[in-house]
Design goal:
Blueprint: E1 8-13, H1 17-26, E2 37-42, H2 58-71, E3 75-80, H3 88-94, H4 98-101, E4 106-110, E5 117-120, E6 129-132, E7 141-151, E8 155-157, H5 171-177, H6 181-187, H7 196-203, E9 212-222, E10 230-240, H8 243-254, H9 264-272, E11 284-286, E12 311-315, H10 320-332, H11 334-340, E13 347-351, E14 364-367, E15 378-381, H12 388-405
Parallel strand pairs: 1-11, 2-3, 2-7, 3-4, 7-9, 12-13, 13-14, 14-15
Antiparallel strand pairs: 1-10, 5-6, 7-8, 9-10
Helix pairs in contact: 1-2, 7-9, 10-12
């Protein structure tokens, strides 16, 4: 019987994150990148400040680039495709990447600024084709540099889910709109919380094959990820040429009581790939003992009402863009919401393609085009995704209308 060759995952910690990156990458055998066109793919999906654990820490990406540049003479690219209503270059600049994207030795790409390339996924269970960045055919090697963060829709977002940013513009949203109840009911026998989104992300494993996975846990995001949790300083870097192994170790460090079932897309990928690791027992770590790196994070909440008692949010199969907009609405307008809504008379919001009439209360604000079919039951706010200011204006107008009527 042939024994499975265990993948190697390197873990390093240092307050000097450049030293942490070097120490981590020194322990693994990186494929020869000489003469290749190499895309560094950080997670820069939102216009936010650095070190919030929402986007990849620019210090980590700079350290990775400088390390690789010294070892391999290659053409280096850096880029991402952010969430809807986000300017790619603005996101990079606000997140602290100005020096890196202006470096003559690396070329910045807005991955959405060319017409897309369509890829077939013949073996996909729910996703049969997808449009990806128009630069796809020019890229020889992809290095995913994801952030370690909790995620309300997928359990966690690590190195593989970061590759979702290779998908062209609004095609990312299609992953949230797919429906196959028969398949989901079948998969729920072994993965209780699985959704179509998880299957679609796993299907991407047929076409996305990064040569190196690096997980930035300099700061990790706990709680209401992907964009509204709290940053936890860990000073840790994880790397491997096997992205699934890297993600498994990241889970072991941040959610030691979890298994892959808690991150359904990774469970599906582990079942899909031949000889794939299923747990940390199938992986060689450097160092062998990683107990000292463990830092349990607060898991993603099951309901936003845990934090906002005067808000009733119905969220069934929404996308992260809509959810992020709602989080920002609540965070940026807390005083207004507290002045006008109570636990007995809450602000009622609904997002997501899975909402039915029976889920709704009267006078619920229906956020986004996914809720259009239910507009007779509530107050519909169009857009994909509606901007925060539009939602706030309609809420204020509705309050004024109700006061006049009363």
């Amino acid at each position: 019987m042939k024994l499975m060759k265990k993948p190697i995952v390197s873990v390093a910690r240092n307050e000097n994150i450049t030293l942490a990156v070097k120490s981590c990458l020194d322990q693994i055998k990186i494929p020869d990148l000489t003469g290749k066109t190499v895309l560094l793919k950080p997670n820069v999906g939102r216009e936010v400040d650095p070190k919030l654990a929402i986007n990849t820490n620019p210090e980590v990406v700079s350290a990775v680039f400088n390390y690789l540049k010294e070892k391999f003479k290659a053409k280096y690219l850096i880029g991402d495709s952010p969430i809807i209503n986000t300017d790619t270059k603005k996101a990079f600049k606000q997140s602290g990447y100005s020096d890196l994207i202006n470096d003559d030795n690396i070329h910045f790409l807005d991955l959405d600024d060319r017409p897309p390339v369509q890829l077939d996924i013949n073996e996909g269970r729910i996703l049969k084709k997808i449009k990806v960045t128009g630069y796809w055919n020019e890229i020889d090697a992809i290095i995913t540099i994801g952030t370690a963060k909790m995620h309300m829709h997928t359990g966690a977002s690590l190195s593989f889910k970061n590759l979702k940013g290779l998908i062209y513009k609004r095609d990312k949203i299609t992953l949230h709109h797919l429906q196959n109840p028969e398949l989901i009911n079948q998969l729920k026998k072994s993965i209780e919380k699985i959704k179509e989104l998880d299957v679609a992300i796993a299907d991407l494993a047929h076409i996305f094959h990064p040569v190196l996975a690096i997980i930035d846990a300099s700061y990790a995001l706990e709680g209401m990820g992907p964009a509204s949790g709290s940053a936890v300083k860990m000073d840790t870097i994880i790397s491997s040429t096997d992205y699934l192994a890297a993600d498994i170790i990241a889970i072991a460090l941040t959610q030691p009581k979890w298994t892959l079932v808690n991150v359904p897309h990774l469970k599906l990928i582990s079942d899909l790939l031949k000889d794939a690791p299923k747990s940390r027992n199938d992986i060689i770590t450097i160092p062998e003992d990683i107990q000292g790196f463990i830092k349990p994070l607060e898991p993603p909440p099951t309901s936003i009402n845990i934090k906002y008692k005067n808000v009733n949010l119905i969220d069934i199969d929404s996308c992260s863009a809509c959810l992020s907009t709602i989080f920002n609405l609540l965070k940026n307008n807390k005083e207004f919401i507290d002045d006008n809504f109570t636990a007995e008379n809450p602000l009622k919001l609904a997002i997501g393609k899975g909402i039915k009439y029976s889920d709704l209360y009267d006078n619920t604000f229906l956020i986004g085009n996914c809720t259009y079919a239910l507009q007779e039951k509530g107050i519909f706010i169009k857009g994909c995704t509606p901007v925060e200011s539009t939602i706030l204006e309609l809420i204020k107008n509705n309050l004024k209308k109700n006061k006049k009527e009363n």
